[in-house]
UniProtKB/TrEMBL annotation:
UniProt name for this protein: PBSX family phage terminase large subunit
Gene3D superfamilies per UniProt: 3.30.420.280, P-loop containing nucleotide triphosphate hydrolases
Species of provenance: Paenibacillus farraposensis
Domain Phage terminase large subunit N-terminal: 20-231
Xref: InterPro entries: P-loop_NTPase, Phage_terminase_lsu, Terminase_L_C, Terminase_L_N, Viral_DNA_packaging_terminase
Pfam families: Terminase_3, Terminase_3C
Length: 411
């Protein structure tokens, strides 16, 4: 192919050159870890010196690979190869697999959520070569025993002397008591290389992202430590834990009823969730989650994606925006805010099992991070949610309001 330039953040150079068995990327949100690892693998998999190498991408929930590891690798391939992608890569999206046409090196995707997933890890085979590399994305979601099972898969003599076994981990340091800290950071070992990165080191990050981080610093100092500075923190006080992420049929006919919840935002995310109800359980089917878009642009995005027959429950603070949605044909209305309604909505949510479709990656992230404010004087959690990075959570609260209260909305 014609020469291409691949742009990397220089702080990852040692990590990309190392052959150590454990390569551990800890960092803030937006520090460039995932893009870096994806680009690094794309280049290595296409390099004839590494013929016989194969990559296994792991997420705790296999279905979330499509929107994370697979999407990152696909984006990296598109960025690097441009209009020559098809000459070099096979990427049948239906099967979620990636293969370089001339080296024959492949990428596959798996989860480790249950016994069936773990059983599947035992039967991984490739047409050429062996499993040499494993990328564990959002590695703090996994148990230490999962990592040991994966580690066991990297063994045996390799025919090609250029090849080596390596496990790569990328994650935000969500807890100072996490096993990953004990295993890779508190012990020095010749087989381990660690790296710490923040969004401030990422030369590709935009100004709006910086501004959002500054807001987080102000509103959510505990979260900023982890997601802004990439330092080991403590994610206590989580509000909801009664949710699971898994694939399910999101079609209208599957549910007893459906609603949209919308939290308006511009600098914050504007979040719209499609929520289904079935047998007293909540199914988050779809998300629209965008920054710095005006109402007209969001309506254009929703066109063809959101069914106009479904009622849409919105933040009451912006009646003009509700009107614009109504004019566009949506059944948009405001959710009445009353004293204590946020806590009442949370109590209601806690009592119902919540299912999240794996495509709703921002909702999953918010759900994991949504927590009660911490009072450092008494070292206890208050009954007030941290009011940052909670836009999908607000949309969820609005979406369930009809179920919780019956039809008592302002129209
Ligand atoms: N090498 C690169 N080339 C171009 N853009 C990049 C590069 N690295 C990072 N970016 C930009 O920075 C953004 C954040 O990077 P990335 O998603 O890799 O961060 P991360 O560390 O994985 O964050 P998180 O912890 O939230 O998953 C990307 O969406 C992309 O826009
Ligand atoms: Mg990432």
């Amino acid at each position: 192919m014609s020469a291409v330039t691949v742009s990397f953040n220089p702080n990852f150079k040692d990590m990309n050159l190392t052959r150590k068995r454990y390569r551990v990327f800890k960092g803030s949100a937006g520090s460039g870890k995932s893009v870096n690892v994806a680009q690094d693998y794309v280049i290595k998999l296409s390099d004839s010196r590494y013929k016989g190498a194969n990559l296994l991408c792991i997420r705790k929930v296999n279905d979330t690979n499509r929107n994370s590891t697979y999407a990152e690798l696909q984006a990296a391939i598109n960025r690097i190869y441009g209009d020559q992608v098809d000459d070099y890569w096979d990427m049948p999206q239906s099967r979620l697999s990636i293969k370089h046409k001339s080296t024959g090196n492949e990428v596959i995707f798996r989860g480790v959520n249950d016994a069936r997933d773990r059983e599947k890890l035992k039967s991984i085979n490739f047409a050429h070569g062996k499993l040499t590399w494993i990328w564990v994305e959002e590695a703090t979601e996994l148990q230490e025993s999962d990592i040991d099972i994966l580690d066991d898969r990297l063994r045996g003599i390799l025919d090609n002397p250029n090849l080596y076994y390596q496990m790569t981990f990328t994650f935000n340091p969500v807890s100072a008591t996490h096993w990953i800290k004990g295993k890779y950071f508190d012990t020095e070992h010749e087989d381990i290389i660690t790296n710490h990165s923040t969004y401030l080191m990422n030369r590709f990050i935009d100004d709006a992202y910086h501004r959002r981080m500054m807001l987080r610093k102000e509103r959510d100092p505990d979260g900023y430590k982890i997601y802004g500075l990439g330092e080991w923190g403590e994610l206590g006080g989580t509000i909801l834990s009664n949710y699971t992420v898994h694939d399910f049929d999101t079609s209208f006919a599957m549910f007893d009823s459906m609603t949209f919840g919308q939290d308006f935002g511009f600098n914050h995310a504007n979040a719209i969730l499609t929520v289904g109800f079935k047998d007293g359980e909540i199914f988050i089917c779809n998300e629209i989650y965008v920054h710095e878009k005006d109402t007209g642009e969001i309506i254009a995005l929703a066109d063809g994606k959101l069914d106009k027959r479904i009622p849409m429950y919105c933040d009451s603070a912006e009646p003009d925006r509700i009107k614009t949605w109504r004019n566009a044909g949506y059944k948009a209305s405001a959710v009445v805010k009353e004293p204590g309604s946020v806590n009442a909505q949370i109590d209601w949510l806690k009592k119902h099992k919540i299912h999240i479709h794996p495509s709703c990656s921002n909702t999953i992230k918010e759900m994991q991070q949504w927590k009660w404010k911490h009072d450092s004087k008494t070292n206890t959690y208050t009954d007030e949610p941290v009011n940052f990075f909670d836009d999908a959570m607000a949309a969820l609260r609005y979406a369930v309001e009809g179920m919780r209260k019956g039809p008592t909305f302002e129209f």
